[in-house]
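User: Okay, second chain of the day. Same drill as before: sequence in, structure tokens out.
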Amino acid sequence: MTILISLLRNIETFEHIRVAVCAAREYERELSVKPADAGASVAAIVL
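Assistant: Same drill. Structure tokens below.
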């Protein structure tokens, strides 16, 4: 039973890591947007 609980905790930890990696990749994509597009995005956020 203890092994099962440990495995479930590890699965949850791996899921958190996966979500964090996906968020980091999305952030990198946003940073690599063309400067003209980035300016429009910033203006839209400010409004």
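The first helix runs from residue 2 to 31.

User: Thanks, on to the next one.
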